Amino acid sequence: MTALLTIQGLDIRAGDKPLVSGLSLSIRPGERIGLIGESGSGKSMTAMAATGLLPTSIRVTGSIELDGQQVVGAPDKTMNRLRGAAAAVVFQEPLTALDPLMKIGRQIAEPVRRRLEREGGKVSKDAISREVRDLIDKVALPQPERIINSYPHEVSGGQRQRVAIAMALACRPKLLIADEPTTALDVTTQAEILKLLDQLVRETGMALLFISHDLPVVSQVVERVIVLKNGVAVEEGAVNTVFGNPQHVYTRSLVEAARLFDEALGATGS
Ligand SMILES: Nc1ncnc2c1ncn2[C@@H]1O[C@H](COP(=O)(O)OP(=O)(O)OP(=O)(O)O)[C@@H](O)[C@H]1O
Ligand SMILES: [Mg+2]
């Protein structure tokens, strides 16, 4: 099957500082891949490069094919067509992705309208609000009427992340890129959002690139992982193999840290 995202020999630099070096990865339709590594290892840079969101001051070379289109050096017009339809992104902190001055209902309606236009169907106000309601149901937001009429700061962090997920889903992307979507949330909310993402990805058959520094989180939602250290992929394989039998000393340290953290939690009885 043709891959949805194929990255080959990706180099990302800021001036002469390499941020990502020689990265290659590929994601087939419906596949769930995790990109893990410590803070600063280049995970977000990779996600932004894949969706053409890096500032022009950052130099990108190599090849990134998204849904059959070359992203490296692509004009805005090409990227605007690909964003949403080919790939949508959910970021770590939903406040940065949401417009603080626009009510949530209108914010979800925007990608719905764009998608309906793209599909060439009838774009009526009714059709849009029906779908906004559907999406709010799908991401299990309570009190839909209140949420639709609220501004982002009037709902909780977990609810904001559900809104961001609804906006990504509204695009019906072939690939969902989730960049640390649960890191800013408390542990209980993290677990709920993870479960929701997992369920939605399975239901819709979207491919998933899940970015995290948290091994236990990643292992819940993906089939394969790529471990990034200082912008270089040091290990790659099936989740169970990589976590059960890590080969690289860096992966071993990540696994060990996660194990110690689990034990500490167990010891405090939480
Ligand atoms: N605009 C920029 N200009 C120059 N360097 C940058 C820029 N943005 C990020 N960097 C650097 O690129 C490197 C990789 O950053 P990136 O955001 O991809 O890390 P990350 O793996 O996503 O980390 P985290 O887990 O903290 O989100 C870091 O050293 C960071 O300081
Ligand atoms: Mg990041």
How would you describe this structure in keywords?
single chain; 270 residues; alpha/beta; Rossmann fold; six-stranded mixed sheet; four-stranded antiparallel sheet; 11 helices; globular; binds adenosine-5'-triphosphate; binds magnesium ion
Q: What does this molecule look like?
A:
The mean pLDDT is 92. The chain has helices at 43-50, 76-82, 94-97, 104-118, 125-138, 144-148, 157-170, 187-204, 215-221, 239-244, 249-267, and strands at residues 5-14, 17-27, 32-36, 58-66, 69-70, 87-90, 175-179, 207-212, 224-229, 232-238. It has one domain (5-267): P-loop containing nucleotide triphosphate hydrolases (Rossmann fold). The strands form 2 sheets. The chain has a 6-stranded mixed beta sheet with strand order 6-7-8-3-9-10, with helices on both faces. It has a 4-stranded antiparallel beta sheet with strand order 2-1-4-5, with helices on one face. The chain has 11 helices and 10 strands. It is globular and about 55 Å long. With 270 residues, it is α/β, with parallel strands linked by helices. Residues 14, 19, 37, 39-45, 55, 58, 213 line the site of adenosine-5'-triphosphate (ATP).
